[in-house]
């Protein structure tokens, strides 16, 4: 494991550190708040990076040692190897091993939440609690549909690569005026760090991963008419599949729940972690 001082770009605390850990076929970059509290590992959503969590990390740093991973194909982590299967849940497991974390709380947003669920399901007993922010509880896609999604994603990444970070921030503020100003720098920087092959493929039913989680789990949902992926009926199905799951709906928020209603989101997270 390599650790270096964080240069501070996008991070509110000078004491935070960054580094890399070796995993199968590459490495993952991370940022870490440190401290004597229990470990809390955060996995970001598609086209984000670890520092996109920094508002939440700063809010929880006095109580937790918060670790923000850059997923494979994102941030400063390794690119996707076309010849190898990409298993984000396994990446999380290997990062936890390399970081020496014992029964951390694991938390993810969007595709990071799906990876978190896959990890927690495959490794029961290795986590203390699980928090899933609006995961994509989607059925396996048909091959033609999956290829169309990959093509759209590649086009999106190409479009970001042609823009400056200032242009990306301006676009983001126009689309999401309710976000805090502090959310945009890392979000914009991340858009220019994404591997065009980073879109995950879901070959197994989401119910398989949800059913295998043995730790207490909080499913955080937004409002579907604002863009949230997890509808009330999907939340009910997840709880029927696994009685370890409780859910909470955050009002006035869509898919980016913590960015759109940070106050209520943070209250729900703190209540669950107590």
Q: Supply the number of structural domains.
A: 1
Query: What characterizes the major β-sheet?
Result: 9 strands, mixed
Which fold name fills CATH's third level, the topology?
Rossmann fold
- SS-derived structural category: alpha/beta
Helix content: 25-40%
Detail the poorly predicted runs: 5-9
Rg of Cα set:
17 Å
Indicate the CATH class.
Answer: Alpha Beta
Inertia-based shape: globular
> Count the strands?
9
Number of helices: 10
What order do the strands of the largest sheet run in, or round the barrel if closed? 1-2-3-5-4-6-7-8-9
How confident is the prediction overall: mean pLDDT?
93
Q: Which CATH architecture would you pick?
A: 3-Layer(aba) Sandwich
Task: Give a structural overview.
The protein is α/β, with parallel strands linked by helices and 274 residues long. The protein has a single domain, classed as 3-Layer(aba) Sandwich (Rossmann fold). The protein has ten helices and nine strands. The chain has helices at residues 54-60, 88-99, 111-122, 143-161, 165-175, 184-191, 206-211, 232-241, 257-260, 262-273; strands at residues 2-5, 17-23, 26-32, 39-43, 65-69, 105-109, 129-133, 217-221, 245-249. Helix 2 packs across helix 3 (111-122) and helix 5 (165-175) packs across helix 6. The radius of gyration is 17 Å and the shape is globular. The two termini are 31 Å apart.
């Amino acid at each position: 494991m390599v650790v270096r001082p964080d240069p501070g770009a996008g991070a509110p605390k000078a004491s935070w550190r960054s580094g890399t850990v070796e995993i199968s076929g590459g490495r993952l970059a991370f940022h870490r708040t440190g401290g004597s509290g229990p470990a809390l590992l955060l996995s970001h959503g598609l086209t984000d990076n670890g520092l996109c969590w920094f508002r939440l990390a700063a809010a929880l740093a006095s109580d937790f040692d918060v670790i923000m991973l850059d997923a494979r194909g994102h941030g400063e982590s390794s690119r996707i190897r076309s010849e190898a299967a990409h298993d984000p849940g396994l990446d999380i497991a290997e990062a936890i091993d390399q970081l020496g974390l014992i029964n951390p709380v694991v938390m993810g947003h969007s595709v990071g939440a799906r990876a978190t669920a896959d990890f927690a399901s495959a490794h029961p007993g290795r986590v203390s609690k699980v928090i899933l922010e609006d995961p994509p509880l989607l059925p396996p896609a048909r091959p033609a549909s999956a290829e169309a999604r990959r093509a759209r994603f590649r086009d999106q990444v190409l479009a970001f690569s042609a823009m400056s970070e200032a242009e990306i921030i301006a676009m983001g503020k126009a689309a999401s005026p309710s976000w805090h100003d502090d959310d945009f720098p890392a979000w914009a920087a991340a858009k220019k760090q994404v591997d065009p092959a980073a879109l995950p493929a879901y070959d197994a039913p989401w119910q398989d991963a949800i059913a295998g989680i043995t730790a207490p789990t909080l499913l955080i949902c937004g409002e579907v008419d604002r863009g949230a992926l997890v509808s009330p009926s999907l939340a009910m199905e997840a709880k029927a599949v696994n009685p370890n799951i409780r859910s909470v709906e955050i009002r006035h928020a869509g898919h980016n729940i913590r960015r759109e209603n940070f106050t209520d989101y943070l209250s729900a997270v703190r209540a669950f972690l107590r």
